[in-house]
Amino acid sequence: MELAPEQCRAARGLLNWTQELLAVRAGVSRSTVRDFERHRHGLHRGTESQIIRTFQEAGIMLLPPGEHGPGVRIR
User: Name one GO molecular function term (predicted).
Assistant: First the structure.
């Protein structure tokens, strides 16, 4: 699954996580999260996988793009 910047922000919002907290938990830099969410650059596959796994372990479901676009749910 490809993570969209909007999904990343929405997932953090559901968890009440800052960019810094996501970065620490996922093992990436805060600037990586910040720049991705601001559409400044995409993520490397490994980094994207780490962030997705971090969200999933925290109870977030990332929904693929469909009729209404990508989404986020909390379990």
Answer: DNA binding
Using alpha carbons, list the distances in angstroms from residue 73 to 11, 13, 14, 28, 64. Answer: 8, 11, 8, 23, 11
User: Homologous superfamily of 5-74 in CATH?
Assistant: lambda repressor-like DNA-binding domains (1.10.260.40)
Q: Domain map of the chain by residue range?
A: 5-74
pLDDT tens for the chain, 75 residues long, are 799 999 999 999 999 999 999 999 999 999 999 999 999 999 999 999 999 999 999 999 999 888 777 899 999
pTM, two decimals, is: 0.92
